[in-house]
Amino acid sequence: MTSDLAIIGAGPAGLTAGHVAGRAGLDAVVFEAETPGGELVNRDRIENYPGRPDVSGPELRTTLYEQFQQYDVPIVLEEVVDIRDEDPFTIATSGGEYAARAVLIACGGRASTLDVPGESAYAGRGVFYCAKCDGPLYRDEVVAVAGGDDWALTDALFLADHAAEVILFETESELPAGASLRERVASNSTIEVRTGTEITKVTGEDVIDSINVIDSAGRTDIVDVDGLYVQVGIEPNTEFLGDAIPTNDRGEIVTDADLQTETDGVFAAGDLRCGSPQTVGAAVGDGITACRSVQQYLESQTDSQP
């Protein structure tokens, strides 16, 4: 059986696209390798979502998922491992193969790593990438935060509710986060900010006990910490595409204004799209735009048939 649309990923962009597809009467199917909701389940607060100020990630995930469920769009809990540009498209998963007239890639990204000595060795032993999951384990301890964007500062504030001290390290001379978050962090006595400082090594014995840093003047230091939370960006989940769908040197999918890729009939939405602001609101908007573009594409294909 051939679907009208295969949506890869059930994060904010994918759930929104599935909802719009259902309303439009498209025969759509969503593929998700893990849990519907994407990174929302790992976020304590979402502070930049219009109409829902200071909503928790799980709460927003529930809202989007319940709205998605209003229409009969199935979610297949299988990992997509390949897309073949055939007529129709073939979507190969960990459980089989499926066919669709159009494809929307919306499988988001994962946390970037520092790529420094000791980081991978101490992952799960003091180095962590989900503040909401692991942060409460560091009550009354010292936690370092790597990163200075909105997500990093939001999570630093969350960690400050648990840890005795939070030390935030940003390689740039100024924090790239928004002004309101910078002000809140600056006024929090539990958080120390060190800009122009790079983490160069993670050390310890059974668990992490310190990190090596160097500042913009070349001064080095060893900082004793009990945990290291890494939030230095997002790496798009596009490796499975191989050469099937072109990406840029960062692995992001390049699209036009209608969110169509260089491959006719294949669209991209959310954090893995080149130029995405990588916010939940932007991902939801992408889901709507991409699905509307899919509708126009499918209609044009029908009109062109003899």
Automatic annotation (TrEMBL):
<dbReference type="InterPro" id="IPR036188">
    <property type="entry name" value="FAD/NAD-bd_sf"/>
</dbReference>
<dbReference type="Pfam" id="PF07992">
    <property type="entry name" value="Pyr_redox_2"/>
</dbReference>
<protein>
    <submittedName>
        <fullName>Pyridine nucleotide-disulfide oxidoreductase</fullName>
    </submittedName>
</protein>
<feature type="domain" description="FAD/NAD(P)-binding">
    <location>
        <begin position="4"/>
        <end position="287"/>
    </location>
</feature>
<dbReference type="InterPro" id="IPR050097">
    <property type="entry name" value="Ferredoxin-NADP_redctase_2"/>
</dbReference>
<dbReference type="InterPro" id="IPR023753">
    <property type="entry name" value="FAD/NAD-binding_dom"/>
</dbReference>
<keyword id="KW-0285">Flavoprotein</keyword>
<keyword id="KW-0560">Oxidoreductase</keyword>
<dbReference type="GO" id="GO:0016491">
    <property type="term" value="F:oxidoreductase activity"/>
</dbReference>
